[in-house]
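Good morning C.,

I know you're traveling, so I'll keep this short. The sequence:
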Amino acid sequence: MIEVRNVSKSFGDEHVLHDISVAFEQGKTNLIIGRSGSGKTVLLKCIVGLLEPTGGDVLYDGECFTAMTTDEKKKVRQKFGMLFQGAALFDSLSVEENVRFKLDMFTNMNSREKKERVNFCLRRVDLDGKNQLFPAELSGGMKKRVAIARAIVLNPQYLFCDEPNSGLDPQTAILIDQLIKDITKEFNMTTIVNTHDINSVMEIGEKVVYILEGRKWWEGTNEEILVSENRELNEFVFATRLVRQLRQDEI
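The tokens, ready to paste straight into the viewer:
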């Protein structure tokens, strides 16, 4: 479990986050949603330690991450899996080398053990046999699946996904959503997804936190969204779905 307690963040006189408290549950897909500029990306960066909160604390399984030393934070970060918006693969490395990268950096596995772990992760994302391909030879969806394989190669306790469906067609986005949900269950991870994709929210949002102007405005499940009387949330959901439908019609 990851807990955010009364977290605020300011940049000079600009107050971006205001006293946010929320618990992200283990074994579930936890989604942070909100319009551009709402503060959801800043919140995610505070959670993973890329930004220091101005006030409040972030806890990992009851341990205060905010108060840890640099070395202590490094140990916690080794339990992280990260899926970046643009996949962030190394173009000069093959699929196998990209997935193996963390094993080379953080483990003492021998070559055979690394190969077995890489192959397991590639099979898990339905990329068996694609080891020697390079990112330039992959579709957008395949790149995201390689990035997921790399994210889970160290069997992380916590998985963070920043706009995982950005740039993907609707059908591929559904596949990526389901894969994230499946591996969350399989590895019993605490998964946090930062997204504005309402389809993702409705498909995999076991817990949803809606951020508005730097404040936690609503939280609940995807099922509770359908019956929510929160006006701002309803406006956000309706507007986002309308824009997505217009884009699909243009295609």
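Safe travels,
E.
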